Amino acid sequence: MSRRAFTLIELLVVIAIIAILAAILFPVFAQAREKARQANCISNVKQLLLGALMYTQDYDEKFHRLLVLNPTCYTNPGACTGGCPSKCWNNDPNGPDQAIGAEDMLNPYVKNTGVWKCPSDNVRRDDCTGPNGWWYPISYSFTHFQPGTYENTATFGLCAYYASADSKTTAEVGRPAQTVLMYELWTMVSYGRHMSYWRWDNRNIADPNWPDAPNYFTVNWCGTGDAQFSLGNHNQVMTIGWADGHAKPMRRRQLMYWPWDQTAVNNRMFNYIHWNEAFKP
Questions:
Q1: Which of 14, 15, 121, 164 has its CA at 20 to 30 Å from residue 157's CA atom?
Q2: Is the pTM of this model over 0.85?
């Protein structure tokens, strides 16, 4: 009795079909996984926004700062000109934080340091002590406000950094549902030990020349060119947190008119990052 078996040609055809199906489906599976991570990221941002709004209720409706210098580490307010304990700096993992960051101000409200990390953020953090990861990573930053020469052209956000200014209050924000409070900034230097990192120039958020993850540019941190900076990216969109407490994914280049310069300011072009209602569409 004869027994029929697959021929070599038939096996090759089946293998080719399986390979083609795999090539088609694997990107779909990758996108589905990224969608799940993006949903987790949106949830993180939502929790941090709620924490930020609860903070405003306890502090005269004023948004938190990006950073406050730790008085334990400084003999002179605003500068470490002498007598600054070495334990305040990154080379001592057992020392106090050199500064109090946004995460320190909001953690009493969110009560979960895990929400500071986007699951898609794979940038390695470094505390410059040798071992990595002593503290939790931070994937999010807040828009910066500083009055003066660059108030409308660069520092038109909500949260103050320098001691010479205060953050904006909720009453000052024009159309909170159309005003960005936080966004994704993935960088090696942003973790609970150091601070929730910030960008002095808010234009960077929408700058087409800034890299989207997984691309990045480098600066010096613990060594030469070792720190990575990247704007978060989920299938070409970034998770944006708004001043009214809602979060949604959005292409970052849609956040403001480009190029944002004095001409754009004078013409009142649209800007979802700006606190002033005059720049809302």
A1: 121
A2: no
